[in-house]
Please model this.
Amino acid sequence: MHRRVAIVTDSTACLPPPLAEKLGITVAQIQVRIGDQVDDEARVPLPRLVDAMRDQEEIVTSPPDPGAFFWSYADAAAAGAEAIVSLHVSTDLSQTAEAARQAADQARIPVHVVDTRTCGMSLGYAVVAAATVAAAGGDARRVVTAAQQNFRRNSEFFYVDTLEYLRRSGRIGAVAALFGSALSVKPLLTMADGRVAPLDKVFGGERAVRRMIDIAVGRAGGGEVDIAVEHFSAPERAQSVLDQLRAKLPRVRRFLVTTVSSAIGAHVGPGAVGVTVSPV
Model:
């Protein structure tokens, strides 16, 4: 189906591939290097990444090459798009939006690059909102507005078993000062001003997960919401979180459960689980 506006994002949006395909969303892949091997993150087997993390192998994530964006934009133009909206992970976490801007300067049609100041399904649901408006025939301005209205309302909460992986990647800042090194203190984190920020500290992993669920329920309030549960190598924990949210939230339009991208997983570590609340 011809659309006036094409939608492009990056793989940190954590969109399930069938959903991205259904909505006609192009996903540029973040690069993951383990030792001296580099590949698209979607091509990195989860067991390989988890083993590398536990063995303390060097793991580095990097934005898609601008050329990958250029060809995505060229394909959209060749398919008849009149404009492109390209939605990306916070620039405080990755230079992906900058790579997209470099490619946009060379594109044949207008490309609107948006730094969403978030990641994960908080970004993913903004991409879904943009794609929905584009499918209805909206122009680029309406598509961008729909995405902005969505990601500005979204909340992302996540639990990690340890801050070690975030410490290795240099992404914790004030978080480290809050939690210190007490092994029994489990961190709850959020996204604030485009960065990973402390949300709460709870003694014990199960208590921390229950606290995260309570915070998510409070954020949802009585309004209709979309909910995503994201995890990294923690499917049983994610299912438990989903079941509890189903019992506590009567007005959910859409539930999604997804594994976070390898690039995010490399920073949060095995056992991490998160909840995105996206008001409708």
Observations:
- The chain has a mean pLDDT of 92.
